[in-house]
Amino acid sequence: MNKHEKLQILRDLVEINTVNNYEEAVAIYVKDLLASYGISSSTIKQAPKRANLVAEIINNDGPILGFSGHMDTVSEGDINSWNTNPFKLVAKDGKLYGRGTSDMKAGVVDLIIAFIELANDENFKGNVRLILTISEELTEEGAKYLSDLGYGDDLDSLIIAEPTGVAKDKLNDYVNSDGVKINSQLKQTLLAKNDLGAFDEQHFIITAHKGWMTYTVTSIGKAAHSSMPSMGINAIDNLIKYYLAEKVFYNSLTEYDDDLGYTVYAPDIIRGGKQVNSIPDKAYLQVKVRTIPQLPNDELIRRLTAIIDRLNKQPGVNLTLKVEYNECPVKCHNNTNIVDIFQKEAGFVLNEAMPLPKVGVSLGTDASEFRRNNPELDIVIVGPGNTTSHQANEYVDLETFYNMTDLYFNVAVKFFEKNLVR
């Protein structure tokens, strides 16, 4: 496949608006594309206009390597903040602009192209499963659905093509941010090379990421006229009691992971009351917390419930906890040497200061759902794209877009040279 054909696939996918929906159009496009190369695939419908896609290269009963990416994107936001049409691929100064170019349609396209090239290589004797999911950005429900159907159960290793690049001028801020954990000596070496290098971006390999959990704490009170507040129970007052207790709790946590750091607590929404002359009878707090293996999600829920149970013993307090989403942290075992293979091959393919330094991050991915039903699954996250994800004027570096296809292809070949038997 030549560069023009590769670029056209990305152009087509960016023009399909999949903001938190409509992934079925992408799945059908990919199904037709694969068919044109003699490859069968299955679209797995999950909801109206939403479908996942799975395709396989199976040559024997040996190990299976997974390629995975999500087809949805976040909203384009304020259209006036874009310099280009977010749903048209625009090439300028070696960059490809458009919603989803970085997160993660470029990565999806690179996986698809590598998959096609592997399927049509007579010398390739390995087994690869391509898995494209819906709704990663909000719920990871596509990965959950496919995982429960068993599509990750027999995988030995999984490559997720989320963006892992950082522009050179953002590198110092990135490695020193609270969302990234990197070995201190490695960081110093990288930043020293950054001062001398001529590269535009540095890509990392994510070998660990935090889990996450979103939950709502609701306070039920009793409405009353604001001229007689003692006749009611102020739901906001009791919610604040909980909020203050929760902050003390999170500030007291000592659990720590060498690859991920501490649990990250972020109270995001507090709402209560409907009008200024009535005592509010309902108020709620919504929180998203990033979790680590040393304080598992279930244990965190148990401790939060204990706080609520204690406060509910006070007169007039009526608090409840509801967990909406619950994804566990992920760490790569590297039993299949997938990290080592990526780093070695990146040294040949990517023109960067260092070949894929290892990092742990606070963000979440579909990896949590595939690991849930396959605890020994090796998972790494490497992809084109960068920290412009979720921003206006999102872009992917053109050279990296092309190079990453070669990297995925080479890694797959080397993976099966090192993992000939299960």
Automatic annotation (TrEMBL):
<keyword id="KW-0479">Metal-binding</keyword>
<dbReference type="InterPro" id="IPR036264">
    <property type="entry name" value="Bact_exopeptidase_dim_dom"/>
</dbReference>
<feature type="domain" description="Peptidase M20 dimerisation">
    <location>
        <begin position="207"/>
        <end position="313"/>
    </location>
</feature>
<dbReference type="Pfam" id="PF01546">
    <property type="entry name" value="Peptidase_M20"/>
</dbReference>
<dbReference type="InterPro" id="IPR002933">
    <property type="entry name" value="Peptidase_M20"/>
</dbReference>
<dbReference type="InterPro" id="IPR050072">
    <property type="entry name" value="Peptidase_M20A"/>
</dbReference>
<dbReference type="InterPro" id="IPR001261">
    <property type="entry name" value="ArgE/DapE_CS"/>
</dbReference>
<comment type="similarity">
    <text>Belongs to the peptidase M20A family.</text>
</comment>
<keyword id="KW-0378">Hydrolase</keyword>
<dbReference type="InterPro" id="IPR011650">
    <property type="entry name" value="Peptidase_M20_dimer"/>
</dbReference>
<keyword id="KW-0862">Zinc</keyword>
<protein>
    <submittedName>
        <fullName>M20/M25/M40 family metallo-hydrolase</fullName>
    </submittedName>
</protein>
<dbReference type="Pfam" id="PF07687">
    <property type="entry name" value="M20_dimer"/>
</dbReference>
